[in-house]
Amino acid sequence: MGATFAAFSYFSPIFTQVAGLSEGAIPILLAIYGVANVAGNLVVGRFADRFTIPILIGGLTILDFALAIFALFATIPAIAITAFITIGLFGVTMNPAMAARVMRAAHPDPMVNAIHSSVITTGLAVGTWAGGWGIDAGYGLTAPLWVGLALAFLGLVSLAPRAARQ
To answer: 72-104 burial string, b = 16+ CB within 10 Å, else e?
Structure first.
């Protein structure tokens, strides 16, 4: 979640100041992003319990790719928008797989879900902060995209031991 929100929190200035889109385009893009989130959740939610690790690995890989493409081609609106929609399809939609992994790792208990929600919220805050730090450090408005890519890559690295056992 931190990887997605490192970028998501700064999509508006990236689109208006880097890609050159009008401010009026932002609500439309965010609506499209929301539809992509719903579509991704509908698909991932059906398979998250059976294919948890492959979904997380595939989703994080695609998220890394989309963030890199967005960062590299942020000045080209068509490519930036396509990458943005891809992030919408795969970024937040991995949450059902993450929840399935947490529930499988711990005995079902009301606190497990509360802790999972707290970790998600922490990821949102840390990702947003890290993306802003990249801008504040002088790396430009595409810095949050690179920060998101780095966080998603760390997520992939964290799955490597589990993937090796399967």
So the answer is: ebbeebeebbebbbbbbbbbbbbbbbbbbbbbe
- The pLDDT, as a whole number, for residue 108 is 67
83-136 pLDDT per residue, tens: 999 999 998 877 877 777 777 777 767 777 777 788 889 989 999 999 999 999
Higher pLDDT, 25 or 55: 25
Q: Which domains does the chain have, with CATH numbers?
A: 2-161 (1.20.1250.20)
Contact 162, 53 (CB under 8 A): yes
pTM of the complete model? 0.90
Compute CA distances 151 → 56, 69, 103, 154, 159, whole Å. 13, 16, 23, 5, 13
Residue 44 buriedness (CB in 10 A; 0-12 / 13-18 / 19+): buried
Burial of 148 (0-12, 13-18, 19+ CB in 10 A): buried
Instruction: Report how far residue 81's alpha carbon sits from residue 29's, in angstroms, rounded to the nearest whole number.
Output: 8
Whether the CB-CB separation of 25 and 15 falls below 8 Å is answered with yes
